[in-house]
Amino acid sequence: MAVTLPPGLSQQASRKGAAQNGLARSRAGGRILRTATAAALAVWFVLPLLPLGLWVFADRWSYPAPLPQHWGLDNVESALARGAATGFAGSLGLGLMVSAVATPLGVLAARSLAFHPSRWSAAVSALLFAPLALPAFVAVFGLNVLLVRLQVPSTAGVVLVLTAYALPYTTYVMRLAYAAHHIGFEEEACTLGATRGQVLFRVQLPLIAPALARAAFLAFLVGWTDYLVTLLVGGGSLVTVPLLVASAASGTGNDGIVAVLSLIALVPPLALLLLMGMTGRRHRGGRT
Amino acid sequence: MPESEVLATRSGQRTAAGPSLKPCMPGVLLAVPAVVLVTVVVGGGSAMVAAQSLGLMPLVGRPELSAAAYTAHGGDLLVGAGLSLAIAGTSTLLACLVGFTAALIIMQGRWCGKLVAAMSTLSVPLPHIVGAAATGLLLADSGLLARVFGAAEGWPAIVGGPWWVAVIFEYAWKESAFVGLVVAGTLATRPVDYEETAALLGAGRLRRLRHVLLPLSLPALMISGTIAFIYSFGSYEVAWLLGRPYPEPLPVMALRLYNSVSLTSRPEAAAIGVITAAVSLGAALVALAFLRKIPLWR
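YS: structure for the whole thing
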C-alpha cells in the first residue's frame, strides 16, 4: 500500500512480528520471573474485589469465619430495597449525559486544534487541560453559589461540571486520533472514484470510530464514577450508585449491600469495554 | 451521538479535503463551546472560591476583604497539607512503580500480558468510593484478610490507623491500573520497535529497561503520575471512609467546614480549597517543567 499506515495498524503488525521472531524471546529464568510478576500483579489488581464477590452471596458471614456460613441472595433484595434500581438509573443517565455532551465538544475542540492551528491553539489546549489541575471540590465550592443564584437545575449543574472534567479526556483522545488521521486515505479513496458519502462512511468514520468510542467511554466513566460533584451540586436530588455505596459503607453491618452495589457499579463499564473490544475486532477483521 | 459524529465528520471533510473547499467559518471557532464550558467551570469556580475565601461573599453582612479565613486554622491547615502531600506522594510513587511494571508485562504480550491487562481493566472503571468500600471489606479488622489469617485481636489498624495504610493502598491500587494502561498504551503506539533494535545490538535485559523502555515511558509515566497525584491530593471520599477523624487531609477538612453550620466556616472551607488548588496547580507546573526537559517531549 502506498499510504503510510496510521500507528494503530502498524503497531499491531510490529507487535505480532516481535512475538514471532527470536530476538525478544526470553530465557527460562526470565520467563519464570515474568510469570511470577504477572501473577503477583494479577493478585494485586483482583484482591480488593475478592471480598465483594464473596459478600454478594453471603446471607450470613459472622466475624471469625473465613467463608460465609449461609449463601443466598438476600443482599440483592436488601440492596434493591435501598434504591439500587434508582441509583443505577441515575448513574447510567448521568454517565450517558456527560458522554453525550463531552464527546461532541471534545471532537470539535480536537478538530480545531489538529486542523486549524492558530496563535490561540496553545492557550486553548492549556485551558482545556486545566480541569485536571483543579480538584473538583474546589470548583464546586465556587460554582455552587453561582448555580444557585442563576437557578440552574441541580442535575444540569452536575452534568455541566462533570462535562468540564471529561473534556480533557475526550479532547486528548480525539486530538491523538486526528494526529494519526491520514488525509492520504481519503485522497486515495477520492482518486479511486469514491463519492463524498462513501469517503465519509467507508473511510473517515471507520478510521476515527475507535477513538470516538474511547472518548465517549472515558466521558461516561467521569459521570459514572463521580461521587463528590453529584453529592454537592446535586444536593440529593440525583441519586447515583456511588452515593448509595457511600451511605451504605459509612454505616455498619451493610457489608453485603455494599458488595451488591459495588458489583452494580462494576458491571456496566465492563460490559461497555467488552462490547467495544468485540466491535473493534470485527471492524479490524473487516478491513484487512 | 451518531448525529454529532456525522456532523463532526462532515465538517471535517470540508476542512480536511484541502484548500480547494473553503470552510464556512474559522476553524478556531470549533473549540468555542468547549472553551466556554471549561472557562465557566474552572475560571468561574476558582474566581468565586477565591472571593469567598477573602470574605468578599459572606452569607450575611457586608463584604470585606480579609485573610481571616486563611489564618483561622493555621496549625491544622499545615498538618493537613503535610498529611495530604504524604498520602498523595506515597500512593503516586507506589502506583507508578506497580503501573510501570504492569505496563512492561502487558507490553510483552503473550498470556501473562493479556492476564495483567484484563485484571487492571477491572479496577480502572470503578468509582473510588467503591474501591474504598472494597478496601475496607478486605483490610479492616473484620475484613477478609483478618478472617483468613485468623488474626482476631492481633490485626493491625490498617483502616483508620495512624499510618493511613488503607487510604494509600486504595489510591495506589486504582491509580496503578491507570498508570499501567496509559504507559502500555503509549509504548504500544511507538511505530519503531527500539527494544528489538537494542536487543539486536546486544543490549541485555537490564540495559534495555534502563536505556530504552524507561526513557520511552517517562513522559507517559510523568503525565499519568501527575494526574494521579493531583487526583489523590484533592480527593475526598477515600480518606473520609478509610481515614481517621484527626488529623484530616485538606479535602476532608474543607468538606467538614463547608457543611458546618457556623457562618465563618464557608470562607474557611473556601480558603482550604484555594490552598489545595494552588498546590495542585504547582504540582502540574513542576511536572510540565520536568517534561520540557525530556528530549522525547516535543
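YS: worth flagging: The two ends of chain A are 12 Å apart (CA to CA).
IM: good catch. Also Residues 1-21 of chain A have pLDDT under 50 and may be disordered.
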